Amino acid sequence: MSTYNDPPVILPGSASRSLTMDICHELAVPMGDLMVERFSDAETFVKIGNNLRGRDVFIVQSTSNPVNENLMELLLTIDAARRASADRITAVIPYYGYARQDRKSQGRVALSAKLVANMIATAGADRVLALNLHSAQIQGFFDLPLDHLEADPILVKCIRELGLKNACVVSPDVGNVKSSRNFADMIKTPLAIIDKRRPRPNESEVMAIIGKVYVENNDVVIFDDMIDTAGTICNAARALRDAGARDVYAIATHGVFSGPALERLAEAPFKEVIVTNSIAQDKSALSGKVRLLNIAPLLASAIDRIHRHTSVSALFRDEIG
Fold first, then answer.
1. Which residue, of 34, 101, 130, 144, has the fewest CB within 10 Å?
2. ∠ CA(281), CA(286), CA(290), 5° rounding?
3. At 1, is the pLDDT very low, low, confident or very high (cuts 50, 70, 90)?
């Protein structure tokens, strides 16, 4: 069995290759050799170039768009590492796809978040390192150790550096109030809440602003875990401007940016839209409003702590002041 005196082997999934390079740079270790091919019938083939026998292996792969291809690649890479006699395999998933299908909101639907967790365990992962899961309950879907990181240290630092005066954090919906409240407490601002209804999936309507007094004549920061089609956050931005807000910012961990998201963000009254690089972006397609924050140092610290068997939760005590 490995004593973990050797450096970890960090393998780059196709969806997170650039992020993996940054992580390896932070840790001063070479990036692992992972070859991925797509056959003409759309099947995926993976081959690991490193000797993994007895090694501590980390596979970095966001299961973002194309979700099914990236998920299958992750599962195959885990299986290849297990068959190559790796001592321990950690799936590092900066963005966990299918996370929003985490409950049965209607009859005869799949609990996809749980199924994906089962697949990762069955493929042969020993543990998972995830970043800002859509809901905390997903942690209980895994029948193996899971370290749940939050990007809060990076997001809080970014907002503090903006130097906003008389700012207010805004939760874009009632379901996000708890995490928005925690974020507001960290940057010491009041909290307002958007009361919305969702007539159809990926569509929303603003009904009211709770805490409107904190919005008027103040800068506001809309806080969420992800921006997908951007309909909710753009409607919220317009409602906040109509309510008398000055500059409107949006900050989120995951920039999913599906469908018309980038066009909507470009047209909405945002001063800036801030997301992390948990999902790889085509920077040429981003408007000047969108800023990417690098989460590689956070993930690198967590990987190093897991490799050395030290506390991962200490990251939050160390980095949020």
1. 144
2. 95
3. very low
Judge whether 206 and 196 are in contact, CB under 8 Å: yes
Catalytic position from the list 114, 157, 188, 196:
196
Tokens of 293: 């924050």
Cα–Cα distance for residue pair 255/274, rounded to 1 Å: 9
Comparing CA positions, the residue from 53, 65, 49 lying closest to residue 12 is: 49
Q: Tell me if 31 sits within 8 A of 303, measured CB to CB.
A: no
The residue with greater pLDDT, 205 or 59, is 59
Overall pTM > 0.70: yes
Check residue 318 and give its pLDDT: 54
- 271 catalytically annotated: no
pLDDT band at 34 (very low <50, low <70, confident <90, very high): very high
